Amino acid sequence: SVLLSSISKTFTKHCLLLNISVLTSTCSDGASSAAFGALNRSKITSRMWSSLACTLRKTKQGVVTVGTTKYNTQQCIVTALEMDHTNSKAWFDLSFTLKEGDVKVGVKAYTREQCIVQALEIDPTITNAWYGLGLLLAGTRNITVSNETCTTTQCFIKALEIDPSRALVWRFLGLSMAPADVSVTVSTKAFTKQQCYLRALELDPTHAPTWRNLGECLPAGETVEVGTMMYNSELCLAKAGTLENADATNAAMSG
């Protein structure tokens, strides 16, 4: 499907961006790993372990020694959770240390998906967690969060009801809609697939894939307004091509 194809191309990039933003946002102080290393393990709190994981990620430092034991980012987060099982941000951060398989917290093993569910069951207002869960499901199955069965589309809707300013989530909401879906409801307002793409472009008019998605879903002869200009399918696709060429040029120059 278009959704699966798009997610397969962008999932790793989006997870990396989410990972960086989440770990950065949860880093509450500028304490160095060396400062933690000077402490006895028993004196480090759950919040401090989470902060240490953040520091390791931001500085791209592989491990830190606490006492006589070395810890990587994942081990720091696991230690934080074993001290405080209700740390929702730590559960979400832990999900990004897993590419496949699982990780043990206490005596129970958790997959990436299960880590995100744990985070949301503790705090259902984490926008990135709903977005990440929607990407993981990729339209292929449903999942239960706090006794509620959620589809990919519903995960994106929940993310947007928390933060409607996320252009990429609007795009993926449009992609996730089935052919039979006339519209979806976000915060009591109905949006068609086309309107999801238009909302995404209002927020980020430089995103080439969204222009392509919009062009591909516009019926022949129909036009829509983006910004102050009118576009038909051909113009949307041309806009996507122009932006893709510019992106490729910028990438080549920066490389």
How many strands, what sense, and barrel or not for the largest sheet? 2 strands, antiparallel
Strand content: 5-15%
Judged by helices, strands and strand pairing, the structural class is alpha+beta
Give the beta-strand count: 10
Report the principal-axis shape. elongated
- SSE pattern: HHHEEHHEEHHEEHHEEHHEEH
Radius of gyration: 21 Å
Helix count, per DSSP? 12
Order of strands in the sheet with the most strands?
A: 1-2
How helical, in percent, are the residues?
A: 55-70%
Q: Give the terminus-to-terminus CA distance.
A: 32 Å
**Uncertain segments of ≥5 residues (pLDDT<50)?**
15-26
Report the average pLDDT across residues: 86
Structure explained in plain terms:
With 255 residues, this protein is of the alpha+beta class. It is 58% helix and 13% strand. It is built from twelve helices and ten strands. The strands form five sheets. A two-stranded antiparallel ribbon has the order 1-2. Helix 7 (127-137) packs antiparallel against helix 8 (152-162). The protein is elongated, with a radius of gyration of 21 Å. The chain starts with a helix and ends with a helix. Mean pLDDT is 86; it is low at 15-26.
Give a nutshell description of this structure.
The protein has helices at residues 2-25, 33-37, 46-59, 73-83, 88-95, 112-122, 127-137, 152-162, 167-176, 193-203, 208-217, 233-254; strands spanning 63-66, 69-72, 102-105, 108-111, 143-145, 148-150, 184-186, 189-191, 224-226, 229-231.
